[in-house]
């Protein structure tokens, strides 16, 4: 690990532990994430400590994926950490995409406020399953984009749009005659209506997850990201690193949950000795160390693939499956080790369990990634015949 990443990561970890962990009991935390007031307050503290948006350097360049993995893991030591230091989804992935594809003017107008932590964003891709819209299969997209002079007119409905409530920047995916497109929009906009903020199992992301209606949204042509019909290509630029970033952040959260469970097992006595000395408990914590290390190594391996300039689609699918499943086991064991305390809100262990359960679905369910990998296995086998 580079010296600069070690330095940045250490400062992020210290900041999260010292200044953000106390916010875990703040009443401004809601079922739909921390309030915007709370987000602004935490980011002000991060800015003052020099750890806001730590994965993007002062000159606008990004840390490598391997370095980012180290830094984002430290930000994840609290479920509030990524929001506080501006490494959270969907902003982190949107910043990455805009940095790769955006024009200079688009970067000035839409990217700079995100990097500066002054704005939040939303990525409008997923659609309601009840209407046959795009979910894990983006080719099912129903939202349309029609060219009208020097504007595009977009109509459709979106679902599970993280952070839509309170976002200032939107990336909207729609389908033109050429294929999938991406558009940059200022939010709020009267043509975009939040119909419902869903009650979901997770609660760490500001604005929650919304169902949104888009009616005759007029977007200037120069706010298209890239070119008409190339939206899926741009989505792939974003998706592999974004999958990996989720793994990085939740690895940090599970490291912290394991610290809490380990402390509990060493302090709590039952049947004449500390819980840690009971084989059933000690073995669960041993299994946690194994899963955490395997998750870390998978993340670093995939990061190296991306740093080598490869698309990383296959590797990120493998990593997302392996890490999300491993971290689910870790979080579950932490709850089990702590017994009744583990299912209360007295520590963040219960929340980490909920968040990681949702993580197994977000950015592609385990089964979709395995299906995609199985198709590759089939293609490779046929090519060898």
TrEMBL record:
The keyword Flavoprotein applies. One of its GO terms (cellular component) is cytoplasm. Its cofactor is FAD. Residues 229-376 form the Acyl-CoA dehydrogenase/oxidase C-terminal domain. The keyword Disulfide bond does not apply. Residues 6-117 form the Acyl-CoA dehydrogenase/oxidase N-terminal domain. GO terms for molecular function: acyl-CoA dehydrogenase activity; flavin adenine dinucleotide binding. Belongs to the acyl-CoA dehydrogenase family. This is Acyl-CoA dehydrogenase.
